[in-house]
UniProtKB/TrEMBL annotation:
The keyword Acyltransferase does not apply. Residues 80-216 form the Fatty acid hydroxylase domain. The keyword Acetylation does not apply. It is an enzyme of class 1 (oxidoreductase). Its EC number is 1.-.-.-. Keywords: Lipid metabolism, Membrane, Oxidoreductase, Transmembrane, Transmembrane helix. It comes from Banduia mediterranea. InterPro entries: Fatty_acid_hydroxylase, Sterol_desaturase/TMEM195. This is Sterol desaturase family protein. Its main location: membrane. The chain crosses the membrane at residues 27-56, 76-97, 139-163. It is found in: Endomembrane system. GO terms for molecular function: oxidoreductase activity.
Amino acid sequence: MAIFAIMSLAETRWPRRPRRLGRSHRWATNLSIMLLGAGVVRLLAALSVPLVAVAVALWAERTQTGLLHWLAWPEWLAFTVSLILLDLLIWAQHAAFHRVPLFWRLHRVHHADREIDASTALRFHPIEIGLSMLIKSAAVLLLGAPALAVMMFEIGLNAMAIFNHTNVGLPERVDRWLRRLLVTPDMHRIHHSIDPREHHRNFGFNLSIWDRLFGSYVASPRLGHLGMQIGLLQYLSDDPGRLWWSLWLPFARANISPESPPANEHEAGPHER
């Protein structure tokens, strides 16, 4: 929460985009969704200890389960490989949640937010949080990732998610250098564009290399960061700011097929950084 507080203050002091909607109503909804998601994770932990990623890693260490334990690589190498592969997993999971209609039902709750700021990083449907934890835990078990690597990855993932959702304006030179390796707010904000040619791009949370490697990178939005609209085309009312509407959205009857992205990966951005 310290990162959330710092980023919230930063976006107030150095906003990248003018705020169009009030904070109070949106934040109440987004924080409530986050608390419900945290409750799901705690419930999973209470039902079975191995369902929490760090606990899975500790169990794998005790039983020497997983690929890295069988390979018996040096600790530093297993640690580094685990961080890299877990980040690739999160990228691939995020891309799948955009491509598979059943998963998109859940993930569109996150994208329906009509503003993007630090609180948007907390706005994931509780079912998506639980499903993500299960996927991550299974990957940790199969990989045999060291518990310390899993813990550091979880801390970094949450901190970076808040950072790159923050409505803060970094100096262009700083952004350009940072995004050579890391996902910056300007890079991730494109992912929340109302234009499907843009919100099916830039899936990374930590490392920017995966989007470049797999051809899903877009450097800048077609209408610029001040002209782009945030949210989903189907939900431009005040509904996404309501808690119960947001929780019910995955079950609502609607066209839930994700729109197709453009053939030209760079069509959405006039220049690269």
